[in-house]
Design goal:
Blueprint: H1 4-11, H2 27-33, H3 39-43, E1 49-51, E2 57-59, H4 71-75, E3 91-95, H5 109-113, E4 119-122, E5 130-133, H6 143-147, E6 153-157, H7 158-162
Antiparallel strand pairs: 1-2, 3-6, 4-5
Main location: cytoplasm
Subcellular location: Cytoplasm
GO cellular component, one term: cytoplasm
Length: 163
């Protein structure tokens, strides 16, 4: 059994802010039962699942987007995943002040990549169109993260968003 509390004390690391993977039951179950077999890494069609802290798989949105193909859950020999008919996670996109548009430079790369059109641009009189995130539409795929030229977009959970 892996004692995360003890390890976190020594490494000053906290439980990941984002879910490691779509559809995981919960963080404790995942860490306690994941054998780190890497079958989910091999199964991921977009290759965004990577070895994270302690060798546990995690999603890296800087590598691309989650297509919600369910192959990671299907490849896992353990009971770590909720039914894939449920929502994958409560992760949403958030933009920070490094955004080119917010710094008066025309850029719409995130909106171009957003398949569900959760990122729209509001025209500004005498200025650059500003991104507006419709979080109720955002599915948390992360397609906007890797395409952002200034790394201004991060994925956050709804709990982080409220802070």
């Amino acid at each position: 059994m892996f004692d995360r509390g003890r390890r976190n004390l020594l490494s000053r690391r906290r439980t990941p802010a984002l879910p490691r993977m779509p559809w995981i039951v919960d963080e404790d179950t995942f860490v306690d039962n994941c054998t780190r077999c890497n079958k989910c890494l091999s199964a991921c069609e977009t290759e965004i699942i990577v070895k994270g802290d302690g060798g546990f798989p995690t999603v890296d949105f800087n590598r691309g987007e989650c297509t919600f193909c369910t192959l990671c859950a299907q490849a896992c020999p353990e009971s770590l995943f909720r039914p894939t008919t449920e929502s994958a996670w409560d992760v949403k996109a958030q933009v920070n002040q490094q955004c080119l548009a917010q710094n008066n430079v025309e850029c719409r790369s995130c909106g171009d990549m957003c398949e569900v059109q959760a990122i729209r641009f509001k025209l500004q009189a005498g200025g650059v169109a500003q991104p507006a995130f419709e979080l109720d539409i955002c599915n948390g795929c992360g397609a906007c993260v890797a395409t952002c030229p200034t790394s201004a977009i991060t994925m956050v959970t709804s709990q982080q968003e409220e802070k």
